[in-house]
């Protein structure tokens, strides 16, 4: 890390500049469109005076300023953090206060419809603009564009795992181009003389990270655990990267701990990373249960004609019961009966043993893409996940949740490793992270990891996000086979 760090000017023209310029244009357009609509729907024509005209002309500029003050354009949040959306909410509330104060000074009694249209419109279209921009950015990144050249620094085994995680998440926008590690990292001989890790070239020791940054023109340095990069050395690295306009990201090594649970506890001499406990407080559990049962009740009422139609279709096309019942393991290991529309022939369980060797599922769960036991109507119901609708009664009765880990059979639970038992801390769900992340294409380890991630990080907002994404998946017909 030696050398003249002051000779490097901060880099310009990065992906964040392109993203921010487009976002600024969209936000300005949103401000202009919404304020025009507010003028049309709000005050009567005879009430539109100089106060309304001045406020409306200034509104696009004021809206962009409110977003900037709310940190909506900070590079570290762009395209990857929910903080972008929270910034829109903060800007909306701030704007409401500005309108109230401005109305006092210019002596204007704002029309209620004018204010409501402004606040609702700016918030909704502000969030939509960021969703569209994020979709555009992620689509480009999946094709290898607008990526940040990244140097990964740390212990060899930790670096290897981190690179695998980075490559599996292209939406984060990092492209590993160099590794800085050292032979002392080796826990076994495979790292002693290696020239690359996960097909990324090794370009020196952790203390040579700055030289590697200059050589490969990196935009990001990611540091994982290494004894040579602690305290003063890490601080000096941060200073050198600051002068070059290069981002520094430090991996905590904590798996699947969401941002809201992390905070910095500062003192004069040190900064500590504080990890909040999962949101399984009594109040949160009661709120989740209330939300689940209320939504389930209204969904059952709304979908009752569909329930009747599916039941008649099953009864007419295939003899046997309409509802399939099976014992599953619920919260804290308690057994419950799960309800589904029957999609298989009546003797499906008896035929299972002869099909086990043809499983397309993971190591624990049996799945077949062309299961001969599925009836004609069953294929349609499974494609659109309509067979799972009776589980709304499970939610209403309190044995399941709308969102949660996948409900498992006793045989599957008996194969759990100790870590996997944690998924029984919450009620199983009709949908979850597994539903929107691959379902039957996931291996057992991936399925368990998603379930544990949900258990440790769930919240009402997370549940609503998963429900929305599930609805999109179901409409697209990407149901289970």
Category by helix and strand content? alpha/beta
Mean pLDDT figure: 81
User: Oligomeric form of this entry?
Assistant: single chain
Percent of residues in helical segments? 40-55%
Q: Looking at the structure, what is the overall shape?
A: globular
Spatially, the strands of the biggest sheet line up as 2-1-5-6
Low-confidence stretches: 1-10
Specify Rg, calculated over alpha carbons.
27 Å
Strand runs, count: 12
The share of residues in extended strands comes to 5-15%
Instruction: Give a quick account of the main beta sheet: strands, pairing sense, barrel closure.
Output: 4 strands, parallel
Short description:
The chain folds into 3 domains: 15-142, no CATH class; 147-253, Rossmann fold, CATH 3.40.50; 282-475, no CATH class. It is built from 14 helices and 12 strands. The chain has helices spanning 15-41, 50-69, 83-106, 112-142, 156-167, 209-216, 232-244, 282-317, 348-351, 376-383, 391-397, 410-413, 444-457, 460-475; strands spanning 148-153, 174-180, 196-197, 200-201, 220-223, 247-250, 262-266, 271-275, 323-329, 335-341, 401-403, 429-431.
Any key phrases for this structure?
Rossmann fold; two-stranded antiparallel ribbon; disordered N terminus; 14 helices
């Amino acid at each position: 890390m030696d050398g003249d760090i002051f000779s490097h000017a901060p880099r310009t023209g990065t992906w964040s500049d392109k993203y921010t310029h487009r976002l600024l244009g969209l936000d300005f357009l949103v401000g202009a469109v919404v304020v025009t609509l507010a003028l049309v729907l709000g005050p009567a024509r005879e009430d539109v005076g100089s106060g309304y005209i001045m406020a409306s002309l200034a509104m696009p500029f004021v809206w962009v300023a409110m977003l900037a003050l709310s940190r909506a354009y900070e590079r570290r949040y762009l395209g990857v953090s929910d903080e972008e959306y929270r910034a829109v909410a903060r800007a909306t509330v701030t704007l409401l206060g500005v309108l109230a104060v401005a109305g006092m000074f210019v002596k204007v009694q704002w029309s209620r419809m004018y204010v409501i249209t402004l606040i609702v419109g700016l918030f909704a279209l502000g969030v939509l603009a960021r969703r569209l921009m994020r979709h555009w950015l992620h689509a480009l990144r999946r094709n290898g564009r607008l990526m940040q050249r990244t140097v990964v620094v740390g212990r060899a085994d930790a670096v290897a795992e981190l690179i695998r995680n980075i490559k599996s998440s292209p939406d984060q926008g990092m492209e590993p181009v160099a590794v800085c590690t050292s032979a002392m990292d080796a826990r076994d001989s495979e790292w002693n003389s290696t020239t690359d890790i996960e097909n990324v070239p090794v370009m020196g020791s952790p203390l040579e990270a700055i030289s590697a940054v200059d050589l490969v023109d990196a935009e990001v340095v990611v540091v994982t655990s290494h004894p040579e990069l602690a305290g003063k050395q890490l601080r000096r690295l941060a200073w050198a990267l600051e002068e070059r306009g290069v981002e520094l990201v430090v991996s905590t090594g904590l798996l699947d701990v969401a941002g809201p649970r992390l905070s910095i506890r500062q003192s004069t001499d040190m900064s500590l990373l504080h990890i909040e406990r999962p949101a399984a407080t009594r109040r949160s559990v009661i709120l989740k249960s209330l939300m689940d049962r209320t939504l389930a009740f209204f969904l059952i009422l709304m979908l009752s004609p569909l329930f009747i139609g599916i039941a008649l279709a099953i009864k007419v096309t295939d003899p046997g019961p309409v509802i399939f019942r099976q014992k599953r393991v619920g919260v804290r290991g308690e057994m419950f009966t799960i309800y589904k529309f029957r999609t298989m022939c009546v003797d499906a369980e008896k035929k299972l043993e002869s099909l086990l060797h043809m499983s397309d599922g993971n190591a624990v769960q049996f799945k077949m893409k062309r299961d001969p036991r599925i009836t004609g109507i069953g294929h349609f119901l499974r494609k659109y996940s309509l067979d799972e609708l009776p589980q709304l009664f499970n939610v209403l009765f309190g044995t399941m949740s709308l969102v949660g880990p996948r409900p498992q059979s006793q045989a599957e639970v008996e194969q759990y490793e100790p870590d996997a038992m944690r998924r029984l801390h919450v009620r199983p769900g009709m949908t979850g992270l597994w539903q929107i992340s691959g379902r039957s294409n996931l291996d057992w380890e991936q399925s368990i990891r998603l379930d544990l991630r949900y258990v440790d990080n769930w919240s009402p907002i997370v549940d609503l996000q998963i429900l929305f994404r599930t609805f999109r998946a179901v409409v697209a017909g990407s149901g289970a086979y």
